[in-house]
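Field: sequence (string)
Field: structure_tokens (string)

Example rows 1 and 2, in order.
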Amino acid sequence: MAAAQLSSCRVATLVGSRRHGPYRAARQQRQHIVAAVHGTPAAADVGDLQRFQQLWTPPAAQLVDVQARGGAPAAAASAYDDHKPRTPPPDLPSLLLDSRIVYLGMPLVPAVTELIIAEMLYLQYKDRTKPMYLYINSTGTTRADGETVGFETEGTAIYDTMCFVKNEVHTVGVGVAIGQSCMLLSAGEKGKRFMLEHATAMLHQPRVPPTGQRQAIEIQIKWREVLAQKQNMLAILSRTTGHSPDKLDKASAAGGGWWPGLALGAGDMQRPLYMQPADALAYGVIDGVVTPEKKIIDDVKSADQWDKEAGLVAR
């Protein structure tokens, strides 16, 4: 009987040691690490302490914050140990703006106009002596299908800003420059207005957005405003291209007709006036055509050059 009880106790002890052995070992290792953290390395194995420091000590002293030190915008890079800092590439508008490039690639709606004007004012604030480059690929105040999406005042607002800033504004036509966008293309610094080889420019009269049902007096007021915007556009184009308002739009000076100041004529803008680069050059909208051999702007800086100028050196 006694031998049987002793045998059962031994079996229970053996089973318990097998069941709780791993937990006991883990608890002992945890005690070693806690003792090391509290400054009692004598109670812990030196190897455990070294392994703990390697696993849990963050290299905060080697953390490099690119954005805080003036590195590439919108980039937060960090370097650990002896690894090279890995910096996400800067966002595209920041790269272009750093090279003083303002890109107009959408129809002229209020949000786009606000951004273009803000970028021009920023570039003037940053440096009043260097030129800025306005790249244009826009259908103006209309969409590609001809539907009006913006007001004619969007183009004149950008034009007034181009005249207001102290910097030279060099314009480059990329893709299409239609209506108000073509006017902005011609409004660049004389001698610094360009188009790419296969770009297209087009001039047309201001268009009225859909208004729905209106009273007769409202239509009359709106039409007067449209005619006033038309005269503003003709005055700007006459100044930038050298053509008289009569050549641009014969109806502007003809008078008479069914509405004061409106009559059919033979002006160039009586119908959409499409121009290829050679035509735009002859018409006075641009001063030159950009070819692969002709360089009009310095190369955009690479991301590594951003970090180098910010004083960030790879470890």
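Row 2 begins here:
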Amino acid sequence: MKARARAGGVLTLFFSVILGCQASVNASAEGDASANGEGARARAEAEASGQAEGEGEMSRSALAPNGNSASLGSASATNASTLAAGRVLLGARHDLKLRPGKGSASCECLAVALGGSRNGGMAWTAVPPDLDETTQLTIALSSDGLTCKDEPKKSLGASYWGYRLSGNDVIVFVEAAHGGRPLTTGAVIPKPVGDGQVYVAPTSRKLPYGRALEGKGRCKIGNPGQVRTAPFTELEVGSDAPAKGSPARGVGGASAPLDDAPTTIELPAN
């Protein structure tokens, strides 16, 4: 009897130990699972927070005012269309030259073509820009191959200097190119208003480029295309347009010397 009792006690102790170990294992597993769950959740939250911070203002600014991300595509499309609709800048074009023999007007020591960007007299080294042809024109000029008795000895040829506005007219000024400065033979200019005309004139009375063939006044080039009804804008006039009677500054060019500034040029009062 005592032997059986001892055997029963041993078995009871053995099963107690096994059950205790199993409970410990289960508790450990549950603890690990709980810890792993919390860790995964914490990592997910941290990653989500970090991702949002990484996107920052870019993602928020791209949203519509109501914060709806579905508007992102339309916002991008609007920006693209706005850029595509941007106006061609006025001023010198180093990718534009006069096509040989295609000048539509002649001044002293100068051949000139005036019109749209795809006018036959325009020779582009790149794709011609799309102008607003109701308010813009391209001009190409050259003195190459022309007999010019008063041409300065060190001149590399006639070069676009800039333009000014006089009433409804646009006056394009031409200088003598020389070493250290690029030879510019093309530009985008404002289209004259109404019956206004484009004229060419030298930056100095001593220069022959752009004088009228008759010897007096400015060299008239014309005003091709539809009549412009919109007045000149501040952008076309220039924010630093000089007051009437002061030494004028051509758009895209340096100030003309006081003693050489053409006396026929006047800017409209602002």
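free_text_note (row 2): Residues 1-5, 27-84, 239-270 have pLDDT under 50 and may be disordered.
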